[in-house]
Design goal:
Length: 238
């Protein structure tokens, strides 16, 4: 595993950044933006790696709206989610900068929203007044199978190993992604309806769009997270 050198910047500005409507132009690199970047990012120095595959959520940086804390105006520019470092990467003055979770409320890409919960980034699948369904985007390293003495030992490679949680207030519970365990999340009286809905709508429990459709349709029928906590062992066995 490559070593990553993180150099924390401790730059404090002696003046107040005036509030203004952010410019949606991706080429806007005004002075206010540069001041914000100094406050919320840190530099990263990479060394060589022997792990195959990408550590990023997107193949290439995508246009995003980054909503910062501390009263800063949102900024709009191209960014990418670094899954390994759990940071949002942006380019500024030919440098790669990382925005840490503690400096962000949420990041909105065209096809995904990333929120911050308990100091970590999560992809938001759906949200309503009762609960949120969130995905922890995780990479693990695996060693590909190979025949010793016949081929050279391959490099390790990245593989997605995500976890999905139900969030209610300040609590979250991981759920197992199987049809049986998902049906158990809803009121017992709705079990047959949930099964029918999943079948008629060809719900794929591996797709966020399908999970959103299912949980939005039965948003008022989800069991309380306290119940889920009391039966988490049963859910793991399914």
């Amino acid at each position: 595993m490559k070593n990553i050198l993180l150099i924390n910047l401790s730059l404090f500005l002696s003046f107040t950044i005036s509030a203004q409507t952010f410019n949606t132009s991706l080429n806007n690199q005004n002075s206010q933006f540069q001041k914000i970047i100094k406050d919320v990012t840190y530099f990263k120095v990479d060394q060589s790696t022997e792990i195959d595959g990408s550590k990023y959520y997107y193949k290439n940086p995508q246009e995003a709206v980054i909503n910062l804390i501390d009263g800063y105006q949102p900024i709009r520019m191209k960014a990418n989610y670094n899954i390994i470092d759990e940071t949002i990467e942006i380019e500024s003055d030919e440098k790669i900068l990382n925005i840490k979770p503690g400096k962000v409320n949420f990041i909105a890409f065209k096809d995904a929203n990333f929120i911050v919960f308990q100091g970590n980034f999560y992809k938001e699948i759906t949200k309503n007044s009762n609960f949120s369904l969130i995905r922890a985007v995780i990479l693990k390293t695996i060693e590909p199978e190979y025949k010793v003495g016949i081929v050279e030992k391959p490099n390790l490679r990245f593989k997605r190993d995500d976890e999905i949680y139900i969030q209610q207030g300040e609590k979250k519970r991981m759920i197992k992604i199987s049809k049986k365990s998902i049906i158990l999340l809803f009121d017992n009286s709705k079990a047959s309806l949930v099964k029918k809905f999943m079948k008629s709508n060809k719900i794929s429990i591996r797709k966020d769009a399908d999970l959103k459709l299912l949980f939005d349709n039965f948003k008022n029928d989800l069991k309380d997270i306290r119940w889920l906590n009391g039966t988490k062992n049963m859910l793991k066995q399914l």
